[in-house]
Amino acid sequence: MVAKFAQVAETLERMAKAVAKNKEWLVELDSAIGDGDLGLTMDRGFTALADAAATYSDDDIGKFFMTGGLTFNKVAPSTMGTLVSTAIMRMGKEWKGKTELSPEDIVAGLQAGVNGIKERGKGELGDKTALDALIPAVEALEESLESEGLPAAWKKAHQAALTGFENTKEMQSKLGRASWFQEGSVGKPDPGAGLITVIFAVLAKDELE
After folding, report:
1. What SS3 state is found at 136?
2. Pick the CATH number of 3-204 from 3.40.50.280, 2.160.10.10, 1.25.40.340, 3.20.20.80
3. Where are the domains of the chain?
4. pLDDT digits over 35-90, tens only?
5. Coil, strand, or helix at residue 176?
6. Considering only CA atoms, which of 17, 61, 63 is closest in space to residue 42?
């Protein structure tokens, strides 16, 4: 099973709609330990990315993600916007010249995105960030693909993201504005990890509440 650009564009459209649907939830999460703008900036960013995909006339997936990352960063100027745009551009670099993506390509691109977020944000697993949902999701995807097809693997990845998100409740924030709350951040889930659950719900084609 391979994904061509038309499928990528369709997925990005669904992702933009899912982020818009969950905008207020993301704002609520971010208001508890951040500045409360996560839902607003991510709505703008993913909408712009989907719009760019809808008008893209090439079939080079990597080239789109490279330019799409710049577009995302321009319309969503924030800490999370910078991290997401970095991940998008790293995926683009990994997929440069590709007109279709195999499951192995997808994993490699997501791992490149993870590495980009780590390097740009200086975060690691356990720091109470988006990585606490993203890393387990990508690991679950790769592991599941050894014995299952991509649709089932996406569902395993989504479940891993949900578990990672829940686990952030018991962590103390170590990076960014959330770290200002120190012990006060314990008991509240990480908003960035919440965003990852929305993204992987779309990839898994799981219904969002």
Report:
1. helix
2. 1.25.40.340
3. 3-204
4. 889 999 999 999 999 999 999 999 999 999 999 999 999 999 999 999 999 999 99
5. coil
6. 17
Q: Cα angle at 119 between 118 and 122, to 5 degrees?
A: 70
Report the phi/psi class of residue 122: left, alpha or beta, with left for phi > 0 and alpha for psi in -120 to 50: left
Look up tokens 């080079």; give the residue.
60
Evaluate if residue 178 carries a pLDDT over 70: no
For the chain, how long is the longest CA-to-CA vector? 50
Answer positive or negative: Cα dihedral of 24, 45, 197, 181. Answer: negative
For tokens 């709350």, name the residue: 181
Measured in degrees and rounded to the nearest 5, phi and psi for residue 185 equal: -80, -15
Rg (CA), the chain: 16
Which residues contact residue 146 at a Cβ distance below 8 angstroms, ignoring those fewer than 6 apart?
none
- Point out which residues pair with 3 in neighbouring strands: 101
Q: How far apart are CA 30 and CA 78, in angstroms?
A: 13
pLDDT, tens digit, for every residue of 151-171? 999 999 999 999 999 999 988
